[in-house]
Amino acid sequence: MKVIINADDFGLSEGANKAIIESYKAGTLPSTSLMANTDYTQEAIELAKENPGLGIGVHMVLTTRRPLLTTHKTLIKENGDFKYRPNTLDEAIDLDELYAEWDAQIASIVSEIEVDHLDSHHHVHLHPYLRPVAEKLAKKYNLPMRSTVTHLPNEVICDGNFYKDGVTLEYFENLFKENKHEVVDVMAHPAYVDDHLRNISSYTDGRYKELEIFLDPQLKELIKAYDIELIRYSDL
Question: How far is the C-alpha of 207 from the C-alpha of 198, rounded, in Å?
Answer without folding.
Answer: 11
